[in-house]
Amino acid sequence: MSFRFFVNGDPVEVEVPGMRRLLDVLREDLALTGTKEGCGEGECGACSVLLDGAVVDACLVPICQVDGTSIRTVEGLGAENKLNDLQSAFLETGGAQCGICTPGMLMAAEAFLASGGPSDEDSIREAIAGNLCRCTGYRKIVEAIAQAAEQRRAADPHPA
What we know:
- This protein is α+β, with helices and mostly antiparallel strands.
- Helices cover 34% and strands 14% of the residues.
- The chain folds into 2 domains: 2-76, Roll (Ubiquitin-like (UB roll)); 85-155, [2Fe-2S]-binding domain (DNA polymerase, domain 1, Orthogonal Bundle), CATH 1.10.150.120.
- The longest helix has 17 residues, at 139-155.
- It is built from 5 helices and 5 strands, in the order ββαβββαααα.
- The radius of gyration is 16 Å and the shape is globular.
- It starts with a strand and ends in a 5-residue tail after the last helix.
- Helix 2 packs antiparallel against helix 5 (139-155).
């Protein structure tokens, strides 16, 4: 079957079985390898992407459910050869370690920041609760998200 949707703002069409996982389509058919497979069971969050702005585990989403939607992956965060503020904050604070969880963590954090919610430690930890990291104690990840939140507030002190 043929499925049409947007990935990082670009229209795509794939001819794949309807129950093929979004994760596999992204990595194998569209060569977007930033999204990682951790557990393959929706438990770790390594494959988190944004589906119409909501965080989902790409390993659990059949491609038939994304027809007509908009997907955003870690490749869609920054511009060519330029990190966005959240990616830069992860780099500056040491929030990224081995790199397996980082793409999913970035996507969950991006959704959290886009929601405009409070950026206190408890709220940030709740926002990334579906994303497991085996390398850190989450402190630097939380710091990175808080830093990006502060930068966004400073850039737009009067959000609409």
